[in-house]
């Protein structure tokens, strides 16, 4: 099976030895996105809802580059700095889907890159 590396300037560049996404067959595996604005390279959001919106925009940019959209998402993983952010993140996250929601888990972690509050990875399939 051939794998294709997906990369777009419309999402933050990787900050380590990984790809924004890898397509293998009809599956797309998107690395965790944090709320970095790709135009500035900085985190501009001032609250967890704003962070989540930027994360979802970054994910959308990677999906678009690969020819997918949120209807193709089959699995997500949400990493939170604190479970107290769950409701705010869930509210923003839910606006990007129109039913037939993907499988998902949400976990709290000790820390995230750049001391952000949310990171989300996704798996899509056509």
Structural overview:
This protein has 126 residues and is α+β, with helices and mostly antiparallel strands. It is built from 2 helices and 8 strands, in the order βββββαβαββ. It has helices spanning 48-66, 86-94; strands at 3-6, 21-24, 27-33, 36-37, 42-43, 73-80, 103-108, 118-125. Helix 1 packs parallel to helix 2. The chain is globular. The mean pLDDT is 97.
Can you summarize this structure?
With 126 residues, the chain is α+β, with helices and mostly antiparallel strands. The protein has two helices and eight strands; from the N terminus they run βββββαβαββ. The chain has helices at residues 48-66, 86-94, and strands spanning 3-6, 21-24, 27-33, 36-37, 42-43, 73-80, 103-108, 118-125.
List the helices and strands and how they pair.
Elements: E1 3-6, E2 21-24, E3 27-33, E4 36-37, E5 42-43, H1 48-66, E6 73-80, H2 86-94, E7 103-108, E8 118-125
Helix pairs in contact: 1-2
Strand content: 25-35%
Poorly predicted runs are none
Structural class: alpha+beta
Rg for CA atoms: 14 Å
Helical content (DSSP H or I, runs of 4+):
10-25%
Main sheet strand line-up = 1-2-3-8-6-7
The biggest sheet amounts to:
6 strands, mixed
What is the average of the pLDDT values?
97
Query: What characteristic shape results from the CA principal axes?
Result: globular
Total count of strands: 8
Distance between the termini: 16 Å
Number of helices: 2
* Oligomeric status: single chain
